[in-house]
Amino acid sequence: MSKLFTFIVTALTLGSWPAAVGFIGPETNRNWGITDQAISDAISPYLLSRSLPQKIVIPNGIVDEPLQVNYTFDQNLQNHAESLLGKYNPDYGVFVAIDPDNGHVLTMAESRRDGLDGEVFSVKNTFPGASIYKIVTAVAAVNEGIASESTIIPFNGKGTSFYKKHVFNHKDGEWTRKYTLNESFAKSVNSVFGRLGAVHLEPDVMLQYVHKLGFNRRFASDFAFEGGRVNIDPEDAWQFAELASGYTRKNTLSPIHGAVLGALAVNDGHLLTPSIVKSLTDSSGIPIYTNEKPNRTAVIHADTARQLKSMMESTIRIGSAKRSFGRLKGESYKGLTVGGKTGSLTGTEPKGRYDWFVGFADNGERKIAYAMLCINKEKWYVKSARFVRDILHYYYQSPDSKA
């Protein structure tokens, strides 16, 4: 396994501000005209070559010297994630974590069993989003008042099956199962979500929430990454069913965007713009740029976020991640809330079986939102939910994680 980045964290030495240079913008955003785009232009080429710079030059005509970069990464968490990837050694593994309150990226860790260098998967969106798209559907249905987590939506067939007759021509019968939306989310029932998206939600409403949650548009971040993509014929109802359930390879997701979706449940429904730069300082240690104000937008009601949180908790308690998590035990787990959404599908870029786990954890003092993607060709080395369970054990129990 090779490390994704060599992170260099720079200590800040506070000093007095030069009297001749005034602030640009509001007092809470002392950035001397330095924009997120300018930082992204300077950093992103290095990120894509897997080595973030210690210093960058921002050609804005105000500050013309190289500036020290203080990154947002939690180096202990980064090291532990890389160590775990080395332990399990999946064919491909990607783990991304962010702070759900401000969008600061805490870690981007990757590994490849063949050891070959290639594209940085954390920022790519070539991966089928699979059942992670059920988050979009659940949010749209609840936020629009179509359903709540306690609404019973009957279905026929297996939860994993997906047939047009079950989506468009449902009829209650002797073998009909009647799950609440909460249960269907936790157990990832395809027919229920296909019906929500293709029958109960209007196409333009579904597409509205696709846009609201960041798909098919660019995040104005301080580093370049690809958001999820939705490729759909607005006249084809079956494609909306596929989108709503995630049962298609056409609609994709990047790990960074997955972590943003996980954060919705624990930040009152705000869509974050992830960032990797905390501050820039000059050669004297004076802060020239500070990332003080989170770039986030309220996209769903706080109560919708609360219900999403409940559904994601049920995924671990009674649903598709129950076996991977087991019971979280220990003093540090008291008061800890953990939730997530699983997703699995066969993909081609790279070829293999894709296994997602997107979610959050919160103990009242520290929050984390994450996305884990494992891609295995022939053999399962670790399930994504199990990997996250090990990460959370470290993050909330290990003294090193709090250093």
Could you walk me through the main structural features you see in this protein, from its secondary elements to its overall organization?
- By secondary structure, the chain is of the alpha+beta class.
- Helices cover 30% and strands 21% of the residues.
- It has 12 helices and 15 strands.
- The chain has helices at 36-48, 75-88, 134-143, 164-168, 181-186, 190-200, 203-212, 237-245, 255-263, 302-317, 322-325, 384-397, and strands spanning 55-56, 67-71, 92-98, 105-112, 127-128, 152-155, 177-180, 252-253, 270-272, 277-281, 287-290, 296-298, 337-348, 351-362, 367-376.
- A 5-stranded antiparallel sheet has the order 4-3-15-14-13, with helices on both faces. The protein has a 4-stranded antiparallel sheet with strand order 1-2-10-11.
- The chain is globular and about 75 Å long.
